[in-house]
Design brief:
Mannose-Binding Protein A, Chain A; signal; CTDL_fold
């Protein structure tokens, strides 16, 4: 009887230990209810609520070089489709005095404006933008002083706004 009681206690402790280990390795829920691995937003990356991990790369590079730098750092140029994302970005930039023009992950190289994730860019443009929309290699950037997206030739030199996107 004593052996079976001892065996039962050991089994219960083992099950509890396995359950705890399972919970620690269970995939985390990211924002918007998407299942995701936890993001590493350690410095120099910053987490901006609904936008994920962002990195403000101060550099002067054309769009392709800016994208390559973001890829090397474990992200890509930022894709911020929603108004809530743009608002959080603008608030963060204002609070941290981040000025300048910041390339993002959108262009019209295929003849229409689209994000790197394949979605069409339909809103978020600054007043009278896009104005270089000829489907001929223009890229998108964000500028706090003129809230919204702007277009510019992809060969112009700007900063890069990198993002580690949520993994579905």
């Amino acid at each position: 009887m004593m052996k079976s009681l001892l065996l039962m206690i050991i089994l219960q402790a083992g099950v509890a230990s396995l359950h705890k280990a399972y919970l620690q390795h269970e995939p985390q829920k990211a924002h918007h209810g998407k299942q995701s691995d936890p993001l590493d937003c350690s410095e120099p990356w910053v987490e901006i609520k609904v936008a994920g991990c962002l990195l403000f790369q101060h550099l002067m590079a054309d769009w392709d070089a800016a994208r390559e730098i973001c890829l090397e750092l474990g992200g890509d140029l930022a894709v911020l489709e929603g108004n809530d994302q743009r608002w959080e970005l603008a608030q963060y930039m204002a609070n941290h005095s981040l000025v300048g023009m910041w390339y993002m992950g959108g262009n019209d190289r295929v003849g229409y404006w689209k994000w790197l994730n394949g979605q069409h860019i339909v809103d978020g443009w600054a007043f009278n933008q896009p104005n270089e929309d000829r489907g001929d290699d223009t890229c998108i950037y964000f500028q706090l002083s003129n809230f919204g997206f702007w277009d510019t030739p992809c060969t112009n030199l700007n900063n890069a706004l990198c993002q580690k996107p949520y993994i579905n």
